[in-house]
DNA sequence: TTGTATGCGTTATCAG
DNA sequence: CTGATAACGCATACAA
């Protein structure tokens, strides 16, 4: 431990190596511009002392933090995990560090977190979900930091955008179920903005096709298996005639599937179930669950590229990218 | 957007408000020491311009980043979520920001991440799981940054520690199953260090009690439901005589329970299943799963307190805290 | 209560 | 290739 001692800096390394601080800086950042002897001396001292340069100082001087911040609604559940993993990997390859913050679906908290993030002057900010508060949008724009909103398509992005249309998903699922002969369908859904977009599109498309979409059962956050069970129970209590249910996540779908089984409601014969996310649980369930697949890895990679391109001063290839989605058919429908 | 424009600083705010930069700094940090008029003028400009102070500069000057870094093996799954949530909350209350990094159970990556973290000079570092590499331990100690290793008890902590004994869990589960009459038991387990500790203790205790612990089925990371199904299948293929299985996570246990059902193996009559973590899936499953409960919230809170106390220059109350565990009995055993 | 000078640790720039 | 100097944006110490 080094507690209490005054911090060890490049000056100290320089002193011990018998060179100037500038040479230490170069040895660390551009070793090819330092003579082999000097380099060896510096490296030896760095190794011995475990010296690590202070990123606050270098960030201040360079006006680059080599840091990208991601703001997630939640870490719970595997929903965003694939994307975060890809984001992290892509940023690391390019020499950036990822800093993750979770807002917990809470507006006040999101506001505070956003301030904290902007304070650190990251080279980019990735928002999972659109920034809706006008306050937040202003703060982001004023900061001059490149922003990518991910996981959602909106008409008025703060800056860049990579996502997919939740409305299109709602409609497509209705089409899919309609094509399979279902005429009375329902939803078990979370209550966040993106889920609501799907709920509305679901109802509208059903009406357009002339089939019945019963009122959805809303589940509280987080979307657990238990919430899925309770959601299906509520839906069936109200509308026992439904023959198919679209759940807003695979975890809810798994819960619904278990609840159906407990009620001796054969899946898919008596009740078809479709989830969303294509998490591993969907494929592993019994029966395997039909689901809406989102390519989280692709979103993460593209978001990283967008942010890095901007941080390097280039304009991004495209400021808005729709990566679409697909329905993965399995035994539950 | 403000791209390209030179960054807006306190000096600019000061100029616009017609005061000195120092007054702006005080208005932001110690408003009670600024006259109401000045305060109003500064706040007005800050509001209008959306000014946010640069944390790299203030951190450099104060030699405090007001940042705590947490290093997790993974974000996947709900295992650490309760702890992270509590950690985040406790730190926020005390004016610190939490920065999360995931090492992905990969040593090289962990090394790089650790460097990146130390560079930013956080006021504390929380490690989930013990730091095993000697390199990493040295780097941590040399940094002088307070460190808390969490989720595990080890004989030689780098600094502070809050966790529970994985060996004690392995032994307790054997005792529990033994008391219920089981004489041939097995495990479906992940292969990480902590899981292995439980595996070994499980085998030892079984031997001490004179009952049979068959060789465990190891599952690949991440611990999904599918891995649990496959794990149980493998175990039963090798050792069909087992009457109870301890799974190293609730997700694995859920998978095992589904696999058992598919094989018409009644739970718990023919096969008892016990999970670990007490995630919501455990209670929501059918049948509800017996599990080992860890108080992640408590770990998170204590870790935050330890780190903050040290950052404030105090010695922590206790440098090592064992928070224990409990077995939650449900219908699967 | 407000302002001025100074330095935090690093690197861009320019001189040798 | 190496070193001296200054500056990044902010807050501590001190002066007015």
UniProtKB/TrEMBL annotation, chains A, B:
InterPro entries given in the database record: HTH_LacI, LacI/GalR-like_sensor, Lambda_DNA-bd_dom_sf, Peripla_BP_I
Domain HTH lacI-type: 8-62
Keywords: DNA-binding, Transcription, Transcription regulation
Database matches in PROSITE patterns: HTH_LACI_1, HTH_LACI_2
Highest taxon in the source lineage: Bacteria
CDD domains noted in UniProt: HTH_LacI, PBP1_GntR
A Pfam family the protein falls into: LacI
GO molecular function annotation: DNA-binding transcription factor activity; transcription cis-regulatory region binding
UniProt keyword Transcription regulation present: yes
Gene3D superfamilies attached to this UniProt entry: 3.40.50.2300, lambda repressor-like DNA-binding domains
PANTHER family listed in its UniProt record: LACI-RELATED TRANSCRIPTIONAL REPRESSOR (PTHR30146), TRANSCRIPTIONAL REGULATOR (PTHR30146:SF33)
Name listed for the protein in its UniProt record: LacI family DNA-binding transcriptional regulator
């Amino acid at each position: 431990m080094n507690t209490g001692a005054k911090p060890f800096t490049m000056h100290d390394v320089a002193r011990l190596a018998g060179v100037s601080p500038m040479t230490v800086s170069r040895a660390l950042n551009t070793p090819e511009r330092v003579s082999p002897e000097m380099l060896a001396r510096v490296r030896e001292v760095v190794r011995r002392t475990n010296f690590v340069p202070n990123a606050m100082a270098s960030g201040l001087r360079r006006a680059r933090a080599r840091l990208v911040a991601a703001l997630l609604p939640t870490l719970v559940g595997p929903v965003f995990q694939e994307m975060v993993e890809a984001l992290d990997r892509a940023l690391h390859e390019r020499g950036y560090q990822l800093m993750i913050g979770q807002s917990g679906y809470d507006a006040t908290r999101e506001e505070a977190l956003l301030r904290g993030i902007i304070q650190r002057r990251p080279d980019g900010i990735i928002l999972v979900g659109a920034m809706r508060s006008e306050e937040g949008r202003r703060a982001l724009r004023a900061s001059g930091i490149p922003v990518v909103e991910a996981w959602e398509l909106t008409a008025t992005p703060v800056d860049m955008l990579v996502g997919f249309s939740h409305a299109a998903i709602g409609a497509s699922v209705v089409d899919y179920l309609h094509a399979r002969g279902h005429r009375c369908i329902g939803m078990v859904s979370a209550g966040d903005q993106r889920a609501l977009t799907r709920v509305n599109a679901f109802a509208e498309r059903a009406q357009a096709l002339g089939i019945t979409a019963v009122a959805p059962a809303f589940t509280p956050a987080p979307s657990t298996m238990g919430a899925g069970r309770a959601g299906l129970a509520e839906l069936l209590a109200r509308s026992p005639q439904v023959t198919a249910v679209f759940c807003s996540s695979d975890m809810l779908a798994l819960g619904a599937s278990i609840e159906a089984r407990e009620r001796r409601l054969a899946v898919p014969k008596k009740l078809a179930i479709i989830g969303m996310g294509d998490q591993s649980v969907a494929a592993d369930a019994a029966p395997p669950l039909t689901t809406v697949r989102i390519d989280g890895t692709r979103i993460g990679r593209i978001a990283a590229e967008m942010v890095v391109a901007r941080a390097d001063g280039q304009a991004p290839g495209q400021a808005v990218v729709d990566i679409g989605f697909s329905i993965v058919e399995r035994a539950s429908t």
